[in-house]
## 1
Amino acid sequence: MEPQPITQEQGMRKKQIIYLWAAAFLFTAACTHKVQVEPIHITVDINIRVDKALDDFFSDLDATEPAAEPLTAPKKR
């Protein structure tokens, strides 16, 4: 059996398929995105003087208030 010769229509069809695959490859290669995640630095400012003043203000209230007894569940009989 001899191979059959390729007709002009079959040759055009092969070229169309090759061009279609090349276009699809170029399209997908152009649509790739690189995502870069960078760390976020957050600075928290704490006003220590105000914190100390509030501790001093409420310390006398804490000293005069009796300690509360812990709550416990009633015993089962």
## 2
Amino acid sequence: MFLNEFSHDQRSAFLVLARQIIDADDRLTLPEVESLDRLYAESGLAAEHADAPNAAGDLNFLYPTERSRAVVLVELLLVAFSDGQLHPREESAIQRVAARLQIDQGTWSNILDWSHRYARLAAEAKSFGREKQPALDE
């Protein structure tokens, strides 16, 4: 969604973090794979192999602004929600990233709340046309 705001190095590091979040709950779902594929396509980077780097480096150096740090967390949460749920281990892993980014609890709560709302709206939008919707005046 916002990866176009990142430099090549920031996108590469983000994709490492995204893979770590997907691995956090010890299960890989098709929606997670599809989400990761979309992120690679959006970032303009080729999908990596199993031997790709698994460390993102100094996150405070890579993401120096409040905006870039918020984008990292929003995007990671959207990856975590891609299978329809935020697993507690995924949330915990993203909270650790937030701590590395020195995100305060209030900002984390706001980002988490927004991501929950967005995930619900995205799921609702995906269901449009697939089932009969009640009339607005009912």
## 3
Amino acid sequence: MAARVSELMVDPVNGGVLKQIEYEVRALAATITSSIKHTDQRLTASHAINTAIKEIGDFENWMKTMEFV
């Protein structure tokens, strides 16, 4: 009998805790998804910058080869 009373008292608390955990997990998942999206955007921008710098270097080498500099 005491175990059943204890169970009836603890179940609502556990349910609330589980709902809070589920809420936190969903919020964390959304934050992770957003971070992944921003990281992908930064990688794309970084790649574009690296490509531009390489092209500038290629052009500079071409100018030196052609003796324009």
